[in-house]
Amino acid sequence: MAQQPSSANNTADHVRASGVWARDFQFAFRQLRRNPGFTLAAVLTLALGIGANAAIFSVVRGVLLRPLPNDDEVRLLYLRQSAQGLGVENAWFSVPEINDLRGRLTTVSRLSEFSTTQPTLFGLGEPREVRSGVVDGRFFEVMGLQPALGRLVGPEDDGPKAAGVVVLTHRFWTGALGSDPTVIGKVVRLGAQAATVIGVLEQSAPYPEETEIIANIVTSPHHLSATMVTEREHRMTEVFGRMAPGADLQAVRAELQTAYDGMTREFPAVYTPHAHFQVSAVPLREQLTARARTILLVLLGASSLIFIIACANVVNLVLARTVRRESELAVRAAILPSTMAVRRTLLAESLVLCGLGALAGVVIAQPMVTLLARFAARYSVRALDFQLDSTPLVLGVVLALIAAVLLAFVPSLPSPGT
Predict the structure, then answer these.
(1) φ, ψ for residue 376, nearest 5 deg
(2) CB atoms within 10 A of CB 42
(3) Angle of helix 36-60 relative to helix 339-376, nearest 10 degrees?
(4) Which of 74, 104, 249, 341 could form an SS bridge with 259, CB 3.0 to 4.6 Å?
(5) What's the whole-model pTM score?
(6) Is it the case that residue 157 has pLDDT exceeding 50?
(7) CB burial class (10 A; 0-12, 13-18, 19+) of residue 311?
(8) Torsion region of 92: left, alpha or beta (phi above 0 gives left; psi -120 to 50 gives alpha)
(9) How far apart are CA 396 and CA 408, in angstroms?
(10) What is the pLDDT of residues 216-227, one digit of tens each?
């Protein structure tokens, strides 16, 4: 019973404190409404700093740092053939070249093929022209990808007598088909070629092309033609590989060069000296991000600088306003019971100001991510599929609140009664 008055007193103290803070925040809103130019400038500056920093960091992390969904991605390779003398940086490969490399490489356990066509797709709603990847039965095994639904193209789908099969990319399945699970087993046509939808691919970077479907070789008559199969200079296929257990990139490159040198000696009329044919192997992640790395790192540095400048500008705006309010603060110091009471009113103002800026930054971050992703997609297909990263947003909001506290306690104030 003796503790009841103490408990009641504590409750009364909390109510009084809440009322004091409520009045301070009401006063803060009135003060900021009286200075719309200052308020708008400070809020927009802070919002742009937080929003831009979060958006750029999200793009950088999504493109450069986020792990690939591929199993054991560090073993994935992209093989590139170039002809600098002809001005061709990436000449791709022909089927005879791929077959030669398969027979000569031991440090690469498997090679797979990828090329593209644009057939008209019939059987899934209105006929439409689609971007189709054409792959051999090793492709998904080499790439280390899994189905989100059904199964993927496998070795049983190779050969000119195999039935036509189609795998839908996750983006196409969710976007164009509304994630319809009944699509599995449907018979469609790619031009004149019949094929059965056998699966949906898990979410993954759509490399080397942003395709909507991926089909086996038999669905493309051109891929079965004598020109495609026998002509060494008919290069229209990109090649991926998976390093053999125990092999490293240096060993792969050395063996690949030896195998390639053997090919060029056997077919000197194809690999003429003036064309300066060369071959290389790079990690898949490097191939996915190489064109985007420099520009994204520059943007990240710029965004960090923008955030620092934004915070500095807000601090300068608030401090300059505080200097102009010296007489007002002196009156407050004379009226209010303590300097801390004056600090509390300043804290309420800076919390409202920085809070509004942080909230606006959160609101504009997603549209900025969408805009930046469209730009980054010119350099890397990884920019096509990622989400806003909450980490820089949370950090920006926390720093804004810390700045609000500092802004309330940095200015010197007259003592009460002076």
Answers:
(1) -65, -25
(2) 25
(3) 40
(4) 104
(5) 0.74
(6) yes
(7) buried
(8) left
(9) 19
(10) 999 999 998 988
